[in-house]
Amino acid sequence: MRAIRKQPPRPQRSSIIKARRTSRRLAHARATGLPTIVMLLSLATAAGQSPRAAIRIVAGLVDAGGAVGVVAADFAEVERRLSLGASLETAVLESESQGGRGTDVARVLDVLRRAETDGAALQLQFEFLIRDLRRSRANALDEAAQRLTVALLFPLVVCIFPAFVLLAIAPLVVEALAGLSL
Length: 182
What we know:
mainly alpha
């Protein structure tokens, strides 16, 4: 008897689709919640909190849920590393190497890292970040609106246009043809 070779299991198509959908939802939540988190970081540092304390404050919002909770979970990972005794620079670099958070979260963490290590001014950096994040979010919404108009063409052509022809033009053609026969 011949031995049957087992093929390694291929991922189910539905699991791939679910993974893509989940990553899109997380990316959307990060894009939506990050400006709010940056504003909270800006308020905390303007009130005299250190970058570490600001990260701790934001990391406490994990239970808030929604878009803010998703971004706060990213900061909670950095805060966990800080509570284990890592420096802010090490915690941020390890968090960036772990990946999966997106470039915008990495930019915010880099601003905080530079503020602690180099003494960079935070408020101006945060204002630029907030403005840039809102602009990129508006651009993403504009692109989505443009894609929506293209997606709506199919129902328009397939459903509404034939109904218009049947209800508006067909009776005129039938009436015209009835008038031709003498």
